[in-house]
Every structure is written in C-alpha cells, then in structure tokens.
Design brief:
The chain has 349 residues and is α/β, with parallel strands linked by helices. The chain is built from twelve helices and eleven strands. The protein has a seven-stranded parallel sheet, sandwiched between helices. It has a two-stranded parallel sheet with strand order 7-11.
Length: 349
Amino acid sequence: MTPFTPHRVLLTGVSNPLGAEVARRLAPQVPMLFGCDVADPVSALEEMDFVHADTRLSVIGKLVRQLHIDTVVHLAVMVDPAHDDRSVHETDVIGTMNVLVGCAAPSSPVRRLIVKSGQAIYGAGPNDPSFFSEDMTNWDRIATGVTRDLLEMEQLVSEFALRNELCGVTVLRLGLRVSEDTSLARYLSLPIVPTFTGFDPRLQLLHEDDAADAVVRAVVGDHAGVFNVAGDGVVLLSQAIGIMGGTAAPVLPPYGRWVSRLALRMIAGVDMPAHLADIISFGSVMDCSRLESAFGWRPVYSSREAMDALALGKQAELIEAPSPPQEYELQVYLQQRRRRQHQLTASRN
C-alpha cells in the first residue's frame, strides 16, 4: 500500500492553547492547514485558514467535503471540563459523532483521523490496577461525568474505525496536564491544599510540549490505534504540593465525593471536576509502552519535570499572547488575498 501523506488537514478546537500550538507546529509540515472552532484562535497564524464552525452541528461534514480534507485532527474534546455535564456531553459525544459522520460520508476524502481523549477515561478507584493499559476500559464501576462521555466517545470512534478500513484512526489518551489553566494546576497552586484524609495518591503528568508533540507525530506518522500518552514516573500528591510550596491540609472526608467537592469549592474556591476528586484520592497511572513501541518516541518531560516546570514558572508557552483584534483582521485579509492570488494563477494556467 502506498504510504499516506497528509496534504489538506482540518484541526478542530484551535481556540484552546493545545490546538493553537499543534496548528503552529503543523503549519510548516503540511501544504494546506484549516482550523475551525466556535471562538477565534487565540493567536494569528497566517499559514492556517480559519472558519467559525461548531462540531456540535452537522455543518462540520459539509466543511470536510467542501475543503477536500484528507486528515482530520479532532481536538475539540473536553478532558478537563469546567462546564456543566450537558455541555461536556454535547461537545465530546455529539460533537465527535458529527465529525465521524462527516468523515464517513460516501463523498468524504478523509484518510486519517486523530482524536484527542484523556486519562480520565479510566476513572479512579480503590481497586484499580497499578497501571492502566489501553485495553483496560471495561470494568464494573459505574462511569459518570467526563469518564462516561469519553467512554461513549471512544466507542463511537472504534465503531467508525471498524466500518471505515481505508481511514487510519488514532486515539491519544493524554495524561493529566498541569499548565496554568487546568483544574489540577489551580488546585495544586493553593497555599493551603485540602486533601483527603489518609490518602497520598500517585499522579502521572504530561507536559504541554509533549502533548502537542504527540498530536503532531500522530498526524505526520502512520500510527493507527489507541495510545496512552504521559511522562515517565509518578509524583505523589504530597510531593506535588511540596514542589509548589504549599501545605497539605488533610481535612476532606474520605467518603461522599460530592460533599468533599462542595467543601473544596467553599473552602478554597476551586471547582474540582468529579474525576479529579477521585484521582486526588486514589491516583491514576498509565502504561505508555505501546506509544514508545509504535511511535519510536516518548515524552521528553517526566512527571516530576512537568511539575517542576509549573513550580518554577518555566512552563513552556504554547502560544503567543492573544492577538489584538487588528492583527486578527489582518490575518483574515491576508488569507483572502492569498486565495485570490491562487485563483488568478489557476485561471491563467
């Protein structure tokens, strides 16, 4: 079979920092890059054509066909939700369903699909294995919140892959990230950190640079399948708190998670998603050997180094400062001018 090389790439979720950084890294490597999201990109990228489009609407399929997209990178997936359950479900499940329908249409030119998932798919509980491998997503525990939605989303992706053998499908289960805009980072940055009495769980982290690198490698490489992505080693919750210069306060009761989440919100002003409340009780560690074997690569930053980077204020900036309105308008103008020049050249030929 002739190796597939991506030429026309559509990136969803470019208004978030990870999507913006993936777009910046992909732009020099693919001939045509398109981005879509409900909000404007956080920074101007002249090499990317941007269109306002919501994956929760069926219009995404028309976009794929009209732009003759051969590769879809679906990053418009919430893995650290700060929204209500309904919004998360609509984005992760309904949005992904619309993307899959667009990729599966008879007239669709899509030959490669990369989907962002997250470590939250495994949940966290007292009877968990020491390491989660990619095949350990079936258990008797009742899944709720983002864990339930990621399971449903990945089931849809798996069924799509079985029905569409000509399209290579890659799912990346990204580990816990501690960039400044994540729930875990905000929690660990508290001067007094409320913890669950009697618990000191293992945390496995993923640096933002490595998250973006993994996505780009999945786009330009040929790695179909499901892959855990996280840094080497673990950091105990008590160690993470110490690295950040905080003080652990074991005041949360080890029962009634929703009560503890409410207490955490009232005491510290932190809105902790349900899956993270479980993780800071029981921990969660993934086996990433499949990633290293298939990609010939592993994250550069260990879990400890990702934590150190946040503490030292050296967390790599994924994007430039948000573009002022004038710069964004200039980006749109330059894109329109470039398209007119292409059309004029094509008409002369």
